[in-house]
TrEMBL record:
Lineage: superkingdom: Bacteria
UniProt name for this protein: Transcriptional regulator
Pfam families (UniProt xref): AbiEi_4
Record-annotated AbiEi antitoxin N-terminal domain positions: 10-56
Species, as recorded: Algimonas porphyrae
Length: 205
């Protein structure tokens, strides 16, 4: 087996487990730029956007776009409607990926996927953040409780009907506990707005 074949095999194996990768990641993994260029020209690897690559037959779904976003914008956190859709508590299918960034962070331009930037100040930006592994990539996302709190805290961004629907579905599917949600809502400045709906949906009288 030639060195080029070894490099190409290594490249394809990496992309099979990581879905997408940036060119600098591949270089750190030991893939030379010339190997990557040849693989693209032969159709073995697809250039998704500038500096971002995947296999031509890679599975594409809504979550895959999250991977591309965090590859391009490492400070981004999936939030609000995109996160609620990921947690399967709303039927809304946002045409843009909603991401939270800091007040002074640069809103990076991307041709794909389309983005909806939301600026959170501290402590709302950093707290109640977790990550999920999608196609081998750790994607920063807020917890479901935090997303619900943010939806009620930001009625100008998220329609109230979407917030209520998501809350109802989260409770009915037992993806959240009312007590935990209350704590997170208080921590994220949303308790006064969320409390009446939580009490109405959990009232068993």
């Amino acid at each position: 087996m030639t060195e080029t074949q070894t490099q190409t095999d290594k490249l394809i194996a990496f992309l099979m487990t990581h879905s997408m990768a940036r060119s600098n990641e591949l270089v750190r993994y030991g893939i030379t730029p010339s190997t990557l260029s040849r693989a693209v020209s032969k159709g073995l690897v697809k250039r998704v956007s500038r500096g971002l690559y995947q296999l031509p037959d890679a599975d594409i779904d809504a979550s895959t776009s999250f991977v591309e976003v965090v590859k391009r914008i490492p400070k981004a956190t999936i939030c609000l409607v995109s996160a609620l859709a990921y947690y399967e508590v709303t039927d809304q299918l946002p045409r843009k990926v909603w991401i939270a960034i800091g007040p002074k962070d640069r809103a990076s331009r991307m041709s794909y996927p389309p983005l909806r930037f939301v600026r959170f100040r501290e402590p709302y930006l950093s707290q109640d953040k977790t990550s999920v592994k999608i196609s081998g990539v750790n994607v920063p996302i807020y917890t479901l409780e935090k997303c619900l709190a943010d939806a009620f805290r930001n009625p100008k961004l998220v329609d109230k009907s979407v917030a209520i629907e998501s809350l109802r579905n989260a409770l009915e599917s037992r993806k959240i506990l009312p007590g935990t949600l209350a704590e997170v809502a208080k921590r994220n400045g949303a308790w006064k707005k969320l409390m009446p709906y939580l009490e109405a949906l959990t009232f068993d009288g």
